[in-house]
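testing teh design pipeline on a random one, pls ignore if ur not involved
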């Protein structure tokens, strides 16, 4: 059970009654490393040795590499592990920095999510504790995650795994596909473009974005451009459409602006899909508006930045506010664990080198309790990305969050 009232009460947790005294010790690290050393996914001679982007999907409790051609494509019924290894420094003194993301689809099962989280910790051990760990939720990815991919594609379905089965196998008959393309606010680079499968109904359309329709009742592929979409979104949609074109599309690719009369064909096809194939009203609505399937906490949160300390120096685990507002790296003490709430953009857990075993063992539990309380207070706290860094291995994204606070 998490402590009550914002994690500030300390009586529920007595370190003397803890059974985690070996967590974080040298013995614990050796045991976990030996386990990681037997995982085929990590032991390919490349992971931890060369920079690059590596993606694995959880399939039947196993870590299965995603082929290079599939990197950037995620299914909402699955859980994934993504490793970004990058060079730090130059020439012969260059080392590798690592960021590990475990991505949880909105329809993933508990066993898949649990396996992804466990294997993320194992991969961190394999990398000698040098990695930043991120928990990514489909509905609200972090800016750091979005920047990994020129475009992030999310499709419905998944792999048969664990106790559940979500079918991604091709169906004999063609099914209508509607994709929504938009630029996610907050991404700092050319990344941040999301291609998200949505329900193939007229109400899924939105004036701000671009949509691609591959309808079961048509031999053409359609791009529907909302009247407020950006030129960049139009260009990205054109790239996606070219990837989808096949010889079966004898009608070719048709680009339709929302306000031109020809765009009514998209409404008609979607209306037929919504009504089960029967002819339905195809009247074009004057405006379309629906929430994006991927939210951005960067622009919706109104809470201030806060720095909290997790410490058991008194003999009991306590959680106390250190700074209400901006913070710098000087505010962190290597003897403890700290939680940095970057005003809703991301919740960071910073682990000091001298933090106790109990403090290190509780970081994810405390962070999850923290975001749950935000959700209980009416905020979208449950959508906030959560990440952990270790002293001396702070990621660029973490350091940028402190610079922005200064």
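output:
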């Amino acid at each position: 059970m998490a402590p009550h009232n914002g994690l500030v009460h300390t009586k529920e947790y007595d370190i003397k009654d803890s059974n985690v005294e070996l967590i974080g010790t040298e013995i614990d690290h050796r045991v976990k490393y030996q386990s990681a050393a037997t995982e085929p996914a990590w032991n390919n001679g490349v992971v931890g040795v060369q920079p690059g982007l590596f993606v694995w999907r959880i399939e039947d409790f196993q870590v299965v590499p995603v082929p290079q051609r599939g990197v950037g494509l995620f299914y909402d019924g699955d859980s994934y592990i993504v490793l970004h290894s990058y060079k730090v420094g130059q020439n012969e003194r260059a080392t590798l920095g690592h960021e590990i993301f475990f991505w949880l689809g909105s329809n993933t099962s508990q066993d898949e999510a649990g396996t992804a989280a466990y294997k993320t910790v194992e991969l961190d051990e394999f990398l000698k504790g040098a990695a930043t760990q991120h928990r990514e939720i489909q509905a609200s990815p972090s800016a750091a995650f979005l920047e990994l991919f020129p475009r992030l594609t999310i499709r419905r379905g998944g792999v048969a795994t664990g106790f559940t089965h979500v079918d991604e196998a091709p169906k004999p008959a063609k099914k209508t596909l509607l994709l929504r393309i938009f630029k996610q606010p907050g991404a700092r680079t050319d990344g941040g473009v999301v291609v998200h499968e949505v329900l193939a109904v007229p109400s899924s359309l939105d004036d701000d974005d671009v949509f691609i329709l591959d309808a079961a009742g048509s031999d053409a592929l359609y791009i529907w451009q909302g009247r407020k979409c950006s030129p960049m979104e139009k260009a990205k949609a054109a790239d996606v459409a070219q990837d989808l074109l096949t010889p079966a599309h004898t009608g070719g690719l048709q680009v339709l602006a929302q306000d031109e009369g020809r765009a009514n064909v998209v409404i008609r096809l979607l209306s037929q899909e919504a009504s089960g194939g029967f002819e339905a009203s195809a009247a074009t609505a004057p405006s379309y508006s629906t929430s994006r399937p991927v939210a951005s906490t960067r622009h919706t949160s109104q809470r201030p930045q806060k720095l909290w300390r997790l410490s058991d120096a008194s003999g009991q685990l306590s959680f106390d506010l250190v700074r209400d507002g901006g913070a710098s790296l000087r505010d962190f003490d290597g003897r403890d664990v700290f939680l940095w709430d970057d005003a809703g953009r991301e919740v960071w857990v910073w682990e000091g080198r001298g933090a106790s075993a109990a403090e290190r063992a509780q970081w994810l539990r405390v962070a999850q309790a923290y975001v749950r309380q935000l959700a209980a207070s009416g905020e979208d706290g449950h959508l906030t990305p959560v990440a952990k860094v270790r002293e001396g291995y702070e990621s660029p994204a973490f350091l940028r969050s402190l610079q922005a606070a200064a």
